[in-house]
Amino acid sequence: MIETAHRIGWDESHSMFRDAVRRFFARHLEPNMARFDAEGSTDRSFWLAAGEAGLLCPQVPEVYGGLRLDFRFNAIVAEELGYCGSPIAINVHSDIVPDYLIHYGTDEQKQAYLPKMVSGACVSAIVMTEPNGGSDLARLRTSARFNGTHYIVNGAKTFISNGQNADLLATAVRTVDAGAKGISLLFIDADLKRVARGSNLDKIGQWSADTSEIFFDDVRVPADRLLGAPGEAFTMMMRQLPQERLSRRCL
């Protein structure tokens, strides 16, 4: 494990937080890693315990239950997770999905999801990759047709991190046939009717990181779950991509 005491750019609060993260992983993760790998997923109790310990979504504003900390705290969680050798996609839940809500969501959307994401009661996933197009947004086929009150979503996604555990699916959909400019982002509750999880995919490694297929068959998503305006998702994603890349480099 790398010595961190004399790093530039960190203060005592970061050191205290790192110690707390190490203690948490030593108690709740390391004794269970072999079982998580064998089961191909992580207990929901782990997410709830991580939320109670303050490890999830530390950047979320206090009004929504968070600590309003800087990204260095997210990086500490990712780094310590790497020292444990665990692939659990905490970074997807904590570093990627909440920032879309923080920067582009309405107050109603933030109130609906952020407090539960902080507590671990709501596990999130970013749902973009498709069987025929990978993560190339220009080839995205999952459609969302607006009927006046709801978006009717049809399509298939694959290789979705947290796919088996996720309660909230931040889903890239096509609302207009206009390449990347026709992509929108819908926040879809995983328990809606006609949302189906496929198999927990076998992988060469990262066994405990549940990675799933997800299917939408005429799923009715309330219109107020659209993030921003129709067709704005590509711009949002390009703005968020630098931090997402930084988050993934921490692993």
Topology:
Elements: H1 12-28, H2 33-39, H3 44-52, H4 71-84, H5 90-104, H6 107-119, E1 124-127, E2 143-146, E3 150-161, E4 168-174, E5 183-189, E6 195-200, E7 211-222, E8 226-227, H7 233-249
Parallel strand pairs: 1-4
Antiparallel strand pairs: 2-3, 3-7, 4-5, 5-8, 6-7
Helix pairs in contact: 1-4, 4-5, 5-6, 5-7
Description:
The chain is α+β, with helices and mostly antiparallel strands. It has two domains: 12-122, Orthogonal Bundle (Butyryl-Coa Dehydrogenase, subunit A, domain 1); 124-246, Butyryl-CoA Dehydrogenase, subunit A, domain 2 (Beta Barrel). Helix content is 37%, strand content 22%. It has a four-stranded mixed beta sheet, covered by helices on one side. It has a four-stranded antiparallel beta sheet with strand order 2-3-7-6, with no helix packed on it. Helix 1 (12-28) runs parallel beside helix 4, helix 5 packs antiparallel against helix 6 (107-119) and helix 5 packs antiparallel against helix 7 (233-249). The mean pLDDT is 91.
